[in-house]
Amino acid sequence: MDKLQLDQHISQQYNADLEKLRTQLLEMGGVVEDQVADAVNAIENADGGLAEKVLKTEDEVDRREVELDEACTLILARRQPAASDLRLVLMVAKATRDLERMGDEANKIAKMAIALNDEGESPRGYVELRHLASNVLKLVNTSLDAFARFDVYAAMKVVRDDKDIDREYKSSMRELITYMMEDPRSISRVMNVMWALRALERIGDHARNIAEHVIYLVHGMDVRHISPAEIEKQLEAKL
């Protein structure tokens, strides 16, 4: 397992500050992961109460984002980190933003759940939604686990699997567009499901971003905008 070993410092407080960054990011990730799962359950079960819970969770996610941003800024100002320490701080700052945006997408799904609940009918597309949601949640969980263990192989799995999410999303959208053309009365309801599918696809993209940040953290490689095959080729050259 390819893991990063962070430097240990004479200042125990510095070590504690870096470890706290990791813990806070993983805690925020857990909150967002639950938020996404609750949003999907809300739309599947027409549960307006659960959807409202998702919307209220946004305040906590925003608060955690601000706290992590402040913590990263303080470490940069006080410690002037270098090498792997600097990459950790920068990675946390970037991943925090991705998690916050995941929370925003979960909110969109919750709002679609409320709209569908008000309409009172179950539209076409729930099967596609459930399957995509299951795969996206796995992606989010694996990306956070990759960070927790500094695991480049797990991060690469997320990068590869995000391509499958994109294909599944496009396939589901084509099916639903065809269905709406055949039954125009369904357009309003099915559009809400399509927006939820779009939000899930975006959550998958943010999970991939976090995985790419992990690769940067461990190897110092900026792999944004590079194909999975090229990333693997560069990683092989590093090993």
Automatic annotation (TrEMBL):
SUPFAM superfamilies: PhoU-like (SSF109755). GO terms for cellular component: cytoplasm. Keywords: Cytoplasm, Phosphate transport, Transport. GO terms for biological process: intracellular phosphate ion homeostasis; negative regulation of phosphate metabolic process; phosphate ion transport. The keyword Cytoplasm applies. The keyword Signal does not apply. Coiled coil: none annotated. Its main location: cytoplasm. It comes from the Bacteria. Transmembrane segments: none annotated. Residues 25-112, 129-214 form the PhoU domain. Belongs to the PhoU family. Plays a role in the regulation of phosphate uptake. Homodimer. This is Phosphate-specific transport system accessory protein PhoU. The lineage of its organism: Bacteria, Pseudomonadati, Pseudomonadota, Gammaproteobacteria, Cellvibrionales.
